[in-house]
């Protein structure tokens, strides 16, 4: 219990620091959305101060000193009120995030979990059968796939499977004629459109899980308690999973916590390539248009997700390896 309370206190302190940093960073960026709008209007002549003020009020730009803005910002964070989006005016930021988040969670989140489980199991098998084809094939394949960046793999898959072969749609989350419902027809259409971006994320992330688990597993197999378990005549599967893999998975578990927390941020480049309406695509538009409310909401959501995921991983660490409690 004391271990969990210490971790909880650290989580709350880190959350406050992240919220404060999230307030400061957008204000350090040069210019503002109002400046961009005024620059476009200035092509037809100088803009009066009254027009400039009207644009700022319409966009809901923060006013007052930094302390007043900070207090107002903290209140809005606690009430989940992030204001109106500058890019998609007059839509609320919360509505935009609520519309994009399910697409990212289903596509990126599910693929991340599948890649972690599959890569970890393959890594365990490769380490247990090291020196055989069951080790060399996954290791070489994983190294080859990991060498390609996300966007390059996405472009290759988009070109060959989308444009050349025509097997899958090349953009969007569902057909233009489909009506978003919870029907089997719409779910099938959404999964069909998510196939290419999901395959991209799976291929580019699988190799890292395989190599990480294999290398840690080989080190763990040389420990005395693994040798003792084998000397006692335990089955190979029991030694591999309950003795070696349970301790070897800890570093991979840390990476999984980071990846799971980052799921909320989406896969920006992949979503851009496939024009997938997830959080990553929304974040790109927010940064491009200097949309402060939308940027702050997305950055805060990503940060909180990563911190909470790491907190849960640390608690799970204490369960899997009691030595970490000390």
Automatic annotation (TrEMBL):
Its main location: membrane. It holds the Pfam family BPD_transp_1. It comes from the Bacteria. It is found in: Cell membrane; Membrane. The keyword Transmembrane applies. The keyword Hydrolase does not apply. Residues 101-313 form the ABC transmembrane type-1 domain. Keywords: Membrane, Transmembrane, Transmembrane helix, Transport. The chain crosses the membrane at residues 103-128, 149-170, 190-211, 253-274, 294-320. It is a multi-pass membrane protein. Belongs to the binding-protein-dependent transport system permease family. This is Peptide/nickel transport system permease protein.
